[in-house]
Amino acid sequence: MKEKKMLIDIVNYNNYRNTIRCIKSLKNIIDEKELIDFVVVDNNSSNNSVECLEKEFKNDVNVFLVQSKTNDGYSKGNNLGIQYCSKHNNYKYISIVNPDTYFDQNVFEKILPILENDDELSMASCSVIMNGKWDIYKQSWRIPSVSEFVLNRSLLSKKTTAPLVYKCYKGNIVQTEVIPGSFFVIKYDDFRQVGFFDENMFMYNEEIVLGKKLKSLGKKAVVDLGSYYYHNHKSISKSEAWYNYRYNFNKALHDYDISYKTREYVCKTYYDSKGLIALKLVNLGNYFMLYTKHLVSYFKSLSYEKK
């Protein structure tokens, strides 16, 4: 097996254009002499993602394409890529990268030396500019308490945001507990020790669980506020949201159910079921709000039709 510096792991689902753009941006900032591989896991896309990715990278020996026969979510998709490439190479670091991210500076030049020089550090990232905006609450956060974890997903109350006070690690590098899953670098051995991503979670809250598991090992995470990457996260307008409540309500319920089942699993597994009853009550309240919005959107559409 070959010794390599890092594996960059990207999960694609019907998003090959962004995936290709992301990889090209990374290749533009990385020295070709670095022993760095890319793996793209296609999560059973329903479009021609696989064909387009194969065509784009067929001559690139450092880009591996793995096809999953099913879409098992973010956690299992990322784990699949790591497992596939780890059969052939030994990696010191794993970088998790979302396909809708973009890089125009070599963030690894700053992140990797930080991890290299401190055994207590497991994970590092840098500032994220999301949809053209720098928001301090998007950079990282602490592990939520039970009440924060339960109430922050309630549709009946405003999201509570805890004051952010970062411990200065060194210069403009700050210590934190939870790093966004859109981009980070983690030591392979530490990632393996915590079992990589929990595959019981299809989507959402993976960052919180990883932060809790690393903290239980006495490990730390940091964010370099002096470097950045772009995350062009798809968002919808209020009018689009109301349209979905009216005409795509079954999908809205399906997406919410996935989110709730993940939160319920996290509550049971990583919070020792504390707050589980409150979470179930919040779930009932959320269903009430979802169906209320569906009805309101129905009457709104009737009023528009009359006009």
Automatic annotation (TrEMBL):
Q: Where is the signal peptide?
A: none
Q: In which pathway does it act?
A: Cell wall biogenesis; cell wall polysaccharide biosynthesis
Q: Where is the Glycosyltransferase 2-like domain?
A: 10-157
InterPro entries referenced in this protein's UniProt entry, alphabetically: Glyco_trans_2-like, Nucleotide-diphossugar_trans
Q: Which UniProt keywords apply?
A: Glycosyltransferase, Transferase
Name any one GO molecular function.
glycosyltransferase activity
Checking Pfam families in the record gives: Glycos_transf_2 (PF00535)
Family note: Belongs to the glycosyltransferase 2 family.
Protein name (Swiss-Prot/TrEMBL): Glycosyltransferase family 2 protein
Organism name: Limosilactobacillus agrestis
